[in-house]
Amino acid sequence: MFGEGRERALPAACSGGFVGNVREQPIFTTRAHVFQIDPNTKKNWMPASKQAVTVSYFYDVTRNSYRIISVDGAKVIINSTITPNMTFTKTSQKFGQWADSRANTVFGLGFSSEQQLTKFAEKFQEVKEAAKIAKDKTQEKIETSSNHSQASSVNGTDDEKASHAGPVDTHLRSENDKLKIALTQSAANVKKWEIELQTLRESNARLTTALQESAASVEQWKRQFSACRDENDRLRNKIDELEEQCSEINREKEKNTQLKRRIEELEAELREKETELKDLRKQSEIIPQLMSECEYVSEKLEAAERDNQNLEDKVRSLKTDIEESRCRQRHLKAELRSFLEVLDGKIDGLHDFRRGLSKLGTDH
Predict the structure, then answer these.
(1) What is the mean pLDDT of residues 167-182?
(2) Helix-helix angle 167-284:114-162, to 10 degrees
(3) What is the distance between the alpha carbons of residues 85 and 335, in angstroms, rounded to a whole number?
(4) Vertex 41, ends 40 and 44: CA angle to 5°?
(5) Mean pLDDT value across the chain
(6) How many CA atoms lie within 13 A of 219 on its CB side?
(7) Residues paired with 89 in a beta bridge
(8) Which of 64, 92, 225, 301 sits between 20 and 30 A of 180, alpha carbons compared?
(9) What is the CA angle 186-187-193, rounded to 5?
């Protein structure tokens, strides 16, 4: 909140004695951007301040009246006396307006938050009710004074007819003259008030028309705002589509970059293959020589294969001879073992025979 409920003195900047006068004190203060209706079109708003300024409710103790006052530097941009016929209208979440028939204009206030607007509207309604009560009391006092003056005037005339002399008669004449003067002034004031009331009614009618036109403008602005919001949504969707397309384009660019690199690699491979092909072509020129060498080598290979075949036959023959030799060796080994076994038996028999001879020699 911008200093809500804050009391502060304002610099003297306008007539009427509201500033710097102890009879008027601020009862509510806030900050807002101030606008006035265009007097020519009665539709468009004109900014009365370049930035948010202080807007205050003032109460006049002597006159029992309320005013909304706002000063921008040394310039008074709002000096509106609140009457019971005024109405503060909220036209949006942060904007409100009211018509001032005396100033013949419509004031608009733009707040920084909906809460500030709500509190200002509530204070306007409260001050409006207080102004209505003050007006009713003032009207009652005027009517009572007028009735009293008329009654006093009639009573004074009857007294003149009843008595023609005496100090009481002189005093009554004096009082009667005073009451006549008061009645004349009261009648003049009533006529003046009737003229002012008629002027206020005409101004109120004009301001009502301006307010209706302003309301129509607000409706038109709402429609334009709705159209702008729809257009904004459409543009946002279009932007999203364009961003998606840009993403696809970027992906395609990346694919193209990869394809370019692949093409360059394939071109390099193609150049290598062409180089190899040239080498092969050069080599193809010596193919007949190579063929002849190959035939010569083939003949040698066939001869070597024949020699190899002969060698293999010899190897097989040698393997067969080796097997036969091994078989004969095994047979000889078997026969040798048999012979050794027989020999061992013979040797054992000789040993036995020898022991028998030794035994016989010992006995003899």
Answers:
(1) 70
(2) 170
(3) 156
(4) 120
(5) 81
(6) 5
(7) 97
(8) 64
(9) 85
Residue whose entry in the numeric block shows the structure tokens 């050069």: 282
pLDDT of residue 285: 78
Whole-number CA gyration radius for the chain: 67
- Give dist(CA 227, CA 77) in Å, integer: 34
Q: What is the pLDDT of residues 86-124, one digit of tens each?
A: 999 999 999 999 999 888 899 999 999 999 999 999 999
Q: Please give the backbone phi and psi of residue 81, each rounded to the nearest 5 degrees, phi first.
A: -80, 130
Cα–Cα distance measured from residue 3 to residue 111, given in angstroms and rounded to the nearest whole number: 13
pLDDT at 342 over 50: yes
CA angle 24, 192, 197 (to 5 degrees): 75
Beta carbons of 94 and 111 less than 8 angstroms apart: yes
Unique residue bearing structure tokens 């840009």? 246
Handedness of CA 8, 133, 190, 182 (dihedral sign): negative
Stated as kind and residue range, the H or E segment containing 265 is: helix 167-284
CA dihedral angle for residue 31, residue 32, residue 38, residue 41, rounded to 10 degrees: -150
Backbone angles phi, psi at 80, to 5 degrees: -115, 120
Give the pLDDT confidence of 197-214 residue by residue, as tens digits: 777 777 777 777 777 777
C-alpha angle with apex 139: 24 to 15, nearest 5 degrees? 30
What residues form DSSP beta bridges with 65? 60
- Alpha carbons 187 and 191: distance in angstroms, whole number: 6
Instruction: Dump the DSSP string for 133-179.
Output: HHHHHHHHHHHHHHHHHHHHHHHHHHHHHH---SHHHHHHHHHHHHH
SS3 of 36-67: EECCCCCCCEEECCCCCEEEEEEEECCCCEEE
Name the residue with higher pLDDT: 317 or 17.
317
Amino acid code (one letter) for 151:
A
Average pLDDT on 268-283 reads 88
